[in-house]
């Protein structure tokens, strides 16, 4: 199944208790008054999860091409060590209902103050009503780690920039947060990867801002904790978001 | 006038009786609760037409370049036989009022259940209030064929994938639906093309999912029914949406 | 500080008295019924300014690449003398809150009838609530010149096309409108540029549709009036929006 995960959409959800009720689409309003519509999950671990972003791999064979709004749409060059800067700015794009067919980022990404993160791995082009049942992996953190990093991914990546050469592996890697599985388990996670790739990580974590030997920065290794600094060798497998500048 | 049609925007409208009233912009809500704003036409053939998409040719000289969201923004390669997959997914983009200056696709594309299809050929950058009077061709089907294909273009292209090598010409071409003209006629349609191109089609139809000898798939040949399998030779004329992978 | 201005976002605001009240985000409706949300400034010169667009330089080293929606996302070629045509069409993109991290253009750009123009130079990625205090330059016109050009930038650039070879320098350059500074002054403006560049302009103006010796057209030279026709030599400094086709 090597590479299969790249066909999946990652839905990053932030905890937002008491904001949503049944599963489905809701209108929310930011602190500054922006109104937006997104998906809320009220069933996982007591509910309160709000979809703030999806990462969609539209081309397994293209890296840093048009449509890669989370990394770079203009290739990787030394001139742009931050790529698009999407992880730490307020640019938004896409729609909740199109989140499995396109990248998605809404104002909740920078506006919501949350405690934990949930990730769903959903096959490309799955309709919204089937996200839950069709997901291949679903898991969430329970350590309430987000407030230590500003309460959301926008603030976390302000503190831990996804920037070439902003640090070294392993000293400057961000936190590895243990996860609780809602669909699948550590075995399922490992089975998504090739035997070679499995030697490079421990399943059961979300790891943020990971460097490799080449000083490239990855925003997230979702589902795993790297055990070395060779993430570039398996970058198309368990560390989905990578930007290499060399 | 060879090639002139490529400067036109195609507005694909689905029948939606009793949903709209005067011509103009309306707010609609999908089954899952997505709210969007689009144009409705209440004058053509009794009305009830809702704009769900426009196809905008932003560069006559560029094929499969940035902005070609209906085909491929990353060129044509064997790695991506479906291109962007736009015809059969829930990704949306653009706005109704910008539909003659940019590609447009709204949630109605996959949400509305319709009976017939209408197409308007409108010159680039025409303001919304002049779409009707400035259109070069307007026509619609009356056979109520859409329910046989799922009720909308999203479902139709799920059944008839716009994918390289998904079938052969002419055996696997989709249906050619006869049209009724609201502006122009079969002569107007033919006159849009060069004498050579005219030998390759019969005007008076919308034809869906057309293959050519090279196994490339076109989503629509709007206004015509191909009579052969050389659509690649006139692809910039009467078959606007083409994706070649070879 | 050569080149520093290129990192800034330009917020073009049109005068709209009595439409907005405190500074912040508002819902507005166009003549045709489009509803959109944008920022209004009620403090500058009596207020009434509505944000209609921002120009964001996402790559100092890339020209006419993906993300350059105001010029061309497909490079500069003789085939496309108008580039994307964004200055004179109704295509919209981006969000008000993301305007310092992405290009932004809303329906107010073509719908609002205004009298004057204000421009804010704000560093990239500045949050909305800090736009005012973090701006490096803020200035506005007071001559009520816009009605002479149709009342907004859309109409102005219909009359003064930003098109290669549509005119010659200096005979066909558009108007240079004097500005009043709200943050900074003519010295601050000049200090943004290199000594060599300073010889090419007089600060204290917004100049529209400027040609150079090579017949390239720039939409705006914001903050300055060119004194010659060598704007291409300093194009990355005081004339931000340039499109070269040769």
Automatic annotation (TrEMBL), chains A, B, C:
Q: What are the coiled-coil residue ranges? A: none
* Signal peptide residues on this chain, from the entry's feature table: 1-22
One annotated GO molecular function is: carbohydrate binding
UniProt name for this protein? Intelectin
Under the heading InterPro entries, the entry gives: Fibrinogen-like_C, Fibrinogen_a/b/g_C_1
Q: Which UniProt keywords apply?
A: Calcium, Disulfide bond, Lectin, Metal-binding, Signal
Gene3D superfamilies listed in its UniProt record: Gamma Fibrinogen, chain A, domain 1
| Organism of this sequence | Coilia grayii (Gray's grenadier anchovy)
Please give the residue ranges the record annotates as the region Disordered. Answer: 70-99
């Amino acid at each position: 199944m090597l590479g299969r995960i790249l066909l999946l959409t990652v839905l990053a959800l932030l905890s937002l208790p008491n904001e949503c009720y049944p599963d489905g689409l809701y209108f929310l309003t930011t602190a500054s008054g922006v109104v937006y519509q997104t998906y809320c999950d009220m069933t996982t671990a007591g509910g309160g999860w709000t979809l703030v972003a999806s990462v969609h791999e539209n081309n397994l064979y293209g890296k840093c091409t048009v449509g890669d709004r989370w990394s770079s749409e203009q290739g990787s060059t030394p001139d742009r060590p931050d790529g698009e800067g999407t992880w730490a700015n307020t640019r938004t794009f896409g729609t909740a209902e199109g989140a499995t067919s396109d990248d998605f980022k809404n104002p909740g990404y920078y506006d919501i103050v949350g405690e934990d993160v949930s990730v769903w791995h959903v096959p490309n082009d799955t309709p919204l009503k089937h996200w839950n049942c069709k997901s291949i992996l679903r898991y969430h953190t329970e350590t309430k780690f987000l407030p230590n990093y500003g309460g959301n991914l926008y603030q976390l990546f302000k503190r831990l920039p996804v920037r070439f050469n902003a640090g070294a592996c392993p000293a400057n890697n961000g936190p590895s947060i243990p996860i609780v599985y809602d669909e699948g388990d550590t075995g399922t996670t490992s089975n998504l990867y090739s035997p070679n790739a499995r030697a490079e990580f421990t399943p059961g974590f979300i790891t943020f801002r990971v460097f490799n030997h080449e000083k490239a920065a990855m925003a997230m290794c979702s589902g795993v904790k790297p055990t070395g600094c060779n993430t570039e060798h398996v970058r198309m497998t368990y560390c989905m978001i990578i930007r290499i500048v060399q």
